[in-house]
Amino acid sequence: MILNRNDICWCGSGKKYKKCHLEFDEKLNKLKNQGYEVPTRDMIKNEKQIQGIRESARINDGVLDLIQEKIRVGMSTEEIDKLVYDYTVSHGAIPADLNYGGYPKSVCVSINDVVCHGIPSEDTILQDGDIVNVDVSTIYNGYFSDASRMFMIGNVSEEHEKLVRVAKECLDKGFEAVKPWGFLGDIGAAIQEHAEANGFSVVRAFGGHGIGLKFHEDPFVAHVGKRGEGMVLVPGMVFTIEPMINEGDYEVFIDEDDEWTVYTEDGGYSAQWEYTVLVTETGAEILSR
Q1: What is the C-alpha to C-alpha distance for residues 266 and 44, in angstroms, rounded to an integer?
Q2: What CA–CA distance (Å, rounded) separates 182 from 263?
Q3: pTM for this predicted structure
Q4: Cα dist. 80→19, 67, 167, 262 in Å?
């Protein structure tokens, strides 16, 4: 679509093009002509959409705060699922996981060697020494948010405490690498370097993703990479960073019976933290944590 300066901007802001994304488009087109991979317009959120994602994120964070308060030894993962469902719907929202692609529960709870997509069950009981990822996703007024936290249950071994800590450090280093007019590869490089420097590996088979108007949007956010490579990051992009860090090899497999649960190939433990992130004019902002 070719717009004149006084046309309404393509982004849906209601502003004139010259006051909104004209200079932005000129800069992006210049980079594209230089051979860089640039985002499409549907990856860029306007102010109204960002506000909607923020409101969804507040509920999403509230769910995780509740789990952080309640999680304990002897709790079933089904109890966690009920807490997530009840809190979410009581705030007028919908658990994004529920029935997504046939997923049967409201949250993913992944313990020890489960990398992601662990399905809650009455039969799965949290034990002393477990490390647990709780991954919460929320739809509110049509807007999506997504974040996860690790929890250490009871007396966790020193090596697994380190795994959880380094995984969080990897997430934070990935977030710190987000800069307007930087690159997706900057994020992956920061995560990979820190994980491997601490003797851990980074899962390749899964990554972060665009989010906001749908649960999973472009771009795919790899957690390994090289600086200065990959898609250009621009203000208005919203995506998750969610590195999965393994104590052993990075290879994983999906349970053939439930077709969801992802395990480490070698049986080693895995840890993951996740943010929903907004690229701003001056840096980046965590919307859900």
Answers
A1: 39
A2: 33
A3: 0.96
A4: 47, 7, 22, 19
Q: How far is CA 288 from CA 125, 215, 240, 274, in A?
A: 27, 14, 9, 8
Mean pLDDT value across the chain: 97
242 closest CA partner among 138, 117, 131: 117
Amino acid letter for position 110: S
How far apart CA 130 and CA 151 sit, in angstroms, is 8
**So what's the pLDDT on residue 2?**
80
Query: Mean pLDDT across the stretch 203-227?
Result: 98
Nearest Cα residue to 185 out of 237, 226, 141: 226
Please report the DSSP string for the chain in residue order: ----TTSBPTTSS-SBGGGTTHHHHHHHHHHHHTT-----GGGB--HHHHHHHHHHHHHHHHHHHHHHHH--TT-BHHHHHHHHHHHHHHTT-EETTTTGGG--SSSEEEETTEEE-PPP-TT-B--TT-EEEEEEEEEETTEEEEEEEEEE-SS--HHHHHHHHHHHHHHHHHHHT--TT-BHHHHHHHHHHHHHHTT-EE-SS--EEE-SSSSSEEEEE-SS--TT-SSBP-TTBEEEE--EEESS-S-EEE-TTTS--EEETT---EEE-BEEEEE-SSSEEEEE-
- Which range among 20-29, 98-107, 111-120, 225-234 shows the weakest confidence by mean pLDDT? 20-29
